[in-house]
Amino acid sequence: MADIKEREESKKFRAMGDRDYMRDFVGGRQVDDCESCGFALRREPDHGTEEDGSLSGIYCSVCYQNGAFVHDASDVNDFLTKAAPDIAKYRGGSVGKIKLTLKKDLKKVPRWSGA
Ligand SMILES: [Zn+2]
Q1: How confident is the model at residue 6, as a pLDDT?
Q2: Which pTM was predicted?
Q3: Ligand 1 centroid to residue 37 C-alpha, Å
Q4: Rg of the Cα trace of the chain?
Q5: Nearest to 63, CA basis, from 76, 44, 79
Q6: CB-based contacts of 50: which residues, under 8 Å, 6+ apart?
């Protein structure tokens, strides 16, 4: 009897372990934001590319191509002037609206937050 119970218990633990694993797996698939312009990297084409052609995990395709920043900018305003038209083209919307949105958001983005 005890033997069967023990087996049942261990089965239960294994099942729980699997669920935990699945939860972590799903939890790990959160959407990252580009660390240059702050836009979400939802789909594969959203990701920038490294020099070897692999996808960047932290920069988007508008900001980062072939291992380098597309817009060589010294500060946020410089970046907005150069990048906003490209971002507007890729994401849709007007250049002016993109600039307004980004001006706020970019303060939190690693490339510009001074962190
Ligand atoms: Zn970006």
Answers
A1: 66
A2: 0.71
A3: 4
A4: 22
A5: 79
A6: 56, 66, 67
Whole-number Å distance, alpha carbon 6 to ligand 1 midpoint, is: 54
SS3 helix, strand, coil % of the chain, rounded to 5?
55, 15, 30
Q: Give the pLDDT confidence of 25-75 residue by residue, as tens digits.
A: 444 556 789 999 999 999 999 999 999 999 999 999 999 999 999 999 999
Distance 62 CA to ligand 1 centre (A): 5
Q: What separation in Å is there between the alpha carbon of 2 and the centre of ligand 1?
A: 60
Torsion, CA 93, CA 99, CA 105, CA 109, rounded to 10: 110
- Quick one: pLDDT at residue 25? 42
